[in-house]
Amino acid sequence: MDSLALILPADGQMPDLANTYTVQSAPLTYPSFVWDGQSLFWQDEAKQKLTVDFASPKQLWRFSKLNKAQEPILRALKWKNGEGQTVWDLTAGLGRDGGLLAYSGCTVTFFERNPTLQILLSEAIFSLQTEMPEMAARITLNPMSSIDHLKLALKDDTMPLPNSCYMDPMYPHRKKSALVKLDLRMVRDLVGDDPDSAELLSLAIDLLKSGRGMQRVVVKRPAKSEYLGDFKPSYSVEAPNTRLDVYVP
Q1: At residue 153, does pLDDT exceed 70?
Q2: What is the span of the domain harbouring residue 22?
């Protein structure tokens, strides 16, 4: 991987990171990766910060309050306690849903094609190896486009498939952008609107119907939105603000 630009605090030392960085000197330029002495984040031209941390206080609080029997994503995946389910997270983004799945015992492969998010995810997984090693061991990052990976899987019937594929494509753009949280706005600025998400779902459904053991495809959608690509699901799991559309063979 090519060297990445990094900003360090004036009196800081180079931290132990997964990737190779070139430290910026004044005058500093943004956007850039920044190490503030405690964590790594991405900072854009407006000095807004984006980070991924699977063991942050907020995430640990979420995990501590998790009712696995009632969690909509786990219900959609037919999760069972102690079952070693494998999942391909086809649109990893900030890794929050995939991280929840890994915390719950699933073995998860993150697919993320955006270079900035790839770096943030890889650093978060690297950090997690110290903080929560068992959870970290259940996460793999694949920087390949999930569309390209599914096309390869369709051509190569010897490629092992997961129990499930999970998708959380970018939601339709809201006119009232203030309603969208800052980190999600920043992700949209980085990745755009996912115009090929219907193609991704179509490929996942083709794999599901290939008779090679994949059990379901789960798509996260806004609660009252149309089905992605007009593919009618087998059933849906409802949540307060979202809906999980489930496709089975």
Answers
A1: yes
A2: 1-50
